[in-house]
Amino acid sequence: MKFFVLTIFPEMIHVYAQYGIVKQAIKKGSLTIEVIDLRQYADKGRVDDEAYGGLPGMVIKPEPVFRAYKSITERYGRPYTILPEPWGKRLVQQDLDRLSQKESLAVICGRYEGIDERVKVLADEELSLGDFVLSGGEIFALALLEGVARLLPDVLSEPESLLSDSFRRWLGYPVYTRPPEYEGLRVPDVLLSGNHKLIELWKLWHSIERTLTYRPDLIPEDITSLERDMMESIKKGIKFEEWIKTRR
């Protein structure tokens, strides 16, 4: 995948790309990132101006954005283009799944009071991280970059872990590592048992329990009989250790 970011702060993207899963995706050849500095396409480096109508704040000018975008399309063709906006559709996991299938993505990052409205003719869709306002689109671009990078082929060393991600079906289950006990807090015995079938049931139970607690709106419609049994037991306040005895 080719990932383009149009921004007045290119170093924010360059630095982030040197770490973690994004660096790994680049190293494995699954991802290339090109950061376009809008100042290089602006007259005398001036990327913003006062808003018409006497409105407050500064607005990103259209010229540098259109010129920078044209430099991409002339070299690579038109990428699927996203404009971060607080009123845009909220980004969810299904969007990351969908966007990870694109050959190329571009994010146009606004700043200050926003970006000239005419730039929107370049965008395929407007997306948001949530119902709050940031000073620019770079944080969104980084979130999208990481969310997509981990889904690309050959990036994760254990790709099967994607199947148990939160929002695939239920929310994620609790995880633990060494030591088995720390300051009186113990890892659940079932995880130390070596009984893989029992561990799978434990994982499912706690995924359902976490979903019921934090995001009951995400309960799937096509639940299995096992999932329904667990869900009803959890609602009754039954613990996993009690429930599993009824399955033997």
From TrEMBL:
What Pfam family does this protein match (any one)?
A: tRNA_m1G_MT
Gene Ontology CC annotations of this record: cytosol
Do you know which SUPFAM superfamilies this protein is assigned to? alpha/beta knot (SSF75217)
The protein's matches in InterPro entries, at most eight in alphabetical order, are given as: Alpha/beta_knot_MTases (IPR029028), tRNA_m1G_MeTrfase_C_sf (IPR023148), tRNA_m1G_MeTrfase_TrmD (IPR002649), tRNA_m1G_MTases_N (IPR029026), tRNA_MeTrfase_TRMD/TRM10 (IPR016009)
Location relative to the cell: Cytoplasm
EC numbers listed for it are 2.1.1.228
Q: An example of a Gene Ontology BP annotation on this entry?
A: tRNA N1-guanine methylation
Name the enzyme's class. transferase
Q: According to its UniProt record, which reaction does this protein catalyse?
A: guanosine(37) in tRNA + S-adenosyl-L-methionine = N(1)-methylguanosine(37) in tRNA + S-adenosyl-L-homocysteine + H(+)
Keyword line: Cytoplasm, Methyltransferase, S-adenosyl-L-methionine, Transferase, tRNA processing
The answer, when asked if Zinc is one of the entry's keywords, is no
Q: Outline the extent of the tRNA methyltransferase TRMD/TRM10-type domain.
A: 1-220
Molecular function via GO? tRNA (guanine(37)-N1)-methyltransferase activity
Q: Where does S-adenosyl-L-methionine bind?
A: G110, L129, G130, D131, F132, V133, L134
Role description: Specifically methylates guanosine-37 in various tRNAs.
Quaternary data: Homodimer.
Say which family it is in: Belongs to the RNA methyltransferase TrmD family.
This protein is called tRNA (guanine-N(1)-)-methyltransferase
